[in-house]
Amino acid sequence: MIELGKKQVLEVFKKKSFGVYLRDDAKEGEGVLLPKKYVPLGCDIGTKLEVFIYRDSDDRLIATTEEPEIMLGQVRMLTVKEVTGIGAFVGWGLEKDLFLPFKEQTVKVVPGHQYLMALYIDKSRRLCATMKIYEYLTTDHNYVKDDTAEGTVYQIHETLGVFVAVDNQYHGMIPKKNLHGACRIGDHVKARVVRVRDDGKLELSLQEKAYIQIDIDAEKIMELLDSYCGTLPFTEKASPEVIERETGMSKAAFKRAVGRLLKNKKVQIVDGKIKNYFQG
């Protein structure tokens, strides 16, 4: 059976001036055309070739020996080439661009930008791209608690948190409680595995373990002080909303880091403001 959207080995059974026709071992149907420009030298009746099957501009099955950037069921970063009135078109390494319908877009896409997408077959039996990749991700990984994982943000849920495709193939999520600072779809993130759930999905955090994170946060506060000319116009007593907006930290994390800096005599608190220790 000739399968759309996949690479498979087919046999040449007919030669024409414009190419060769291929079929599978079952020798069913009329076969599929491999255009002349893709036919390798020395190809003859009975030659077996590994090809990728898709549809041409007239929606006919067509074979190619070119390597697509994505195959059926896979998830890959693809570049948007054009946005039209009916949807977007995406480059995927083949002559005919891949269609990304509006209904399969999770954000408004921009030509030249890359987004994480999967390849699927629509109701008209055409290959299309989708940014709704949740069902294409797996849990077949070797991650354990406290491992470092990298991935791409592909969905943001207002109450649950941020969904991340770890290694662009595994299920991961940063719960809202572990999220401080803004994330956008398409962002590349480096996170710590907080927990591997019973179903294999990864719970992530952008924060290191507390004893490590304190030093990271303290350094960030010192950088903020420099950008504020040595004085932050608030302390750890400010509201959680102000602290998160200005620093990207939770109030608890900010308080811990300020405590470390006070202990190490790198900052001082004067008149409700945090200042460099030697600023006075």
Describe the structure in your own words.
The protein is mainly beta. The chain is built from three helices and 18 strands. Helix 1 packs across helix 3. The longest helix is centred in the C-terminal third of the chain and has 18 residues, at 210-227. The chain is elongated, with a radius of gyration of 27 Å.
Short description:
The chain is mainly beta and about 280 residues long. The protein is about 15% helix and about 40% strand.
Relevant terms:
14% helix; mainly beta; 280 residues; 5-stranded antiparallel β-sheet; single chain
Portion in strands = 35-45%
* Number of strand segments: 18
Helix fraction by DSSP (H/I, runs of at least 4): 10-25%
Over all CA atoms, what is the radius of gyration? Answer: 27 Å
Helix/strand order, N-terminal first: EEEEEEEEEEEEEEEHEHHEE
Stretches with pLDDT under 50, minimum 5 residues: none
Mean residue pLDDT? 88
Backbone shape:
elongated
Largest sheet: 5 strands, antiparallel
Number of helices: 3
CA distance, first residue to last residue = 79 Å
**Quaternary form:** single chain
